[in-house]
Amino acid sequence: MKYKSIFSLLILSVSALLFSFINDNGGWTSRFLQINKNGSITYHPDEKGNTIPDFSAVGYHHGFKEIPQLKVVKTLHPVNGDAGKMIQDAIDEVSALAPDANGHRGAILLTKGDYPIAGTLNIETSGIVLRGAGSNTGETRLIATGKGLRSLLKIQGKGKITEIPGTRVQIMDKYVPTGAKSFQLSNTKGLKAGDKIILFRPGTDNWIHDLQMDQIVAREGTKQWTGADYNLSYEREVVRVQGKVVFIDNPVVMAMDQQYGGGSIFKYEYKGRIQEVGIENMLFESEYASDTDEDHGWIAADFNHIENGWVSGVTSRFFGYACVSLDGGAKNITVKDSKCLDAKSIITGGKRYSFNNNGQQNLFMNLETTEGRHDYVTGAKTCGPNVFYQCKSRNTHADIGPHHRWASGTLYDNIDTDGEINVQDRGNWGSGHGWAGVTQVLWNCKVKSAAIQNPWASGKNYAVGVQGKKLAGRLNGRPDGEWEGQDQKGLQPPSLFQAQLRARELTK
What we know:
Layout: H1 2-25, E1 28-29, E2 33-35, E3 41-43, E4 72-76, H2 84-95, E5 106-110, E6 113-117, E7 121-123, E8 128-132, E9 140-144, E10 150-156, E11 162-163, E12 169-170, E13 175-176, E14 182-184, E15 196-201, H3 205-211, E16 232-242, E17 245-248, E18 256-257, E19 264-269, E20 274-275, E21 278-286, E22 297-304, E23 306-317, E24 322-326, E25 330-341, E26 355-357, E27 363-370, E28 376-378, E29 383-394, E30 399-402, E31 407-413, E32 416-417, E33 420-423, E34 437-443, E35 446-452, E36 462-464, E37 467-470, E38 482-484, E39 491-492, H4 496-505
């Protein structure tokens, strides 16, 4: 017995030394994936075949194209009084120009100075860039003046996802795991590379029941979930067809399970959606009457019904809701190198969603916030993949993460916050938020604290290398998320998103 104890202590000592050596020299790696010597990634599936998805194909043209530098075709200078009409007239003038082969019409340059705007500016045509001379004080400043809860700048086309009749085909696999980029169809006739398709995952009442979202402890205004309200439509593109197997450009981010209705695909159109619009290098400010004023500029840049656009080098101050808000029709938008500072509103629900995303395949990177609530946030039924990468929050008043009602497929990579990141059953908060999301991946994030839970059915959530306190979550008895390496520094790779981008380069 004595020798056995000595041997055990020796093993523990050697293990401790080895652990220290790994951390000092090479860091540690996740059990969920392996970076190979050539930079490729091997993902380790769970018992059902689910893996952490590839999040690399997000943002402007999926990251395959650099954000272009459009030629200036119109230059504006500050004027006395309201500048809204002058700027809108310039937008309308450039909108009337013929686009080039890339769909670009040109950039409108706003030189240094102040541009007071009493209303809302609207960009409704593809190929236009609104560009300033910088986002610092004394450079280009657009000011939402006076009263009126509004967006200062709205970038939006029109329309919606419309199924092309006769193209719907059932998925034949009994289970298509998270992370998959291919599956078998009942028929691939008429499908070819380049086709835009919807990967459709129906909501069913038995799925809602297994999630226990028909059993939310009710209070005034609580709405129980129903299957018909949770049909999910993921925008995808066909990469190739091989027999009855179709390969798609972005992965499945929520398993397709026949016990919950399986899935299908169909071709679609989105008539009226605009493209190639950018906002660059300017400061947005809102006038306000007090720190709790609710009747002033609400959103600096508001996007919807647009594909392949960008926001770069923008700062907003004093708005009540967001610097950038992407609605459900916003796809493949890159928001980078921007700040949302010093929001003015009551600090309560529906306010201060600094960088808000309800769209698909969008990338938010290198961002900063102060005095926000839900700083990097997704809304109800937001379909991924989406990425928040290398973002910082200070003096935050609520949590980062999926806010309510089943967002799927979001990566939070190197988020640094003095508040919380939570992925949990929110129960009867709001009107019955319930399970906030699935396939939500936290990678190498720094937090004050975090609650990461797995839903009762249909997937997992991951907290890999999170530095900060682990919370139990709002409600007792919920399954624990996939926690790994809490407060353990040296995670390799330091950024999952960057590693996935490098791995993607090998497949070109």
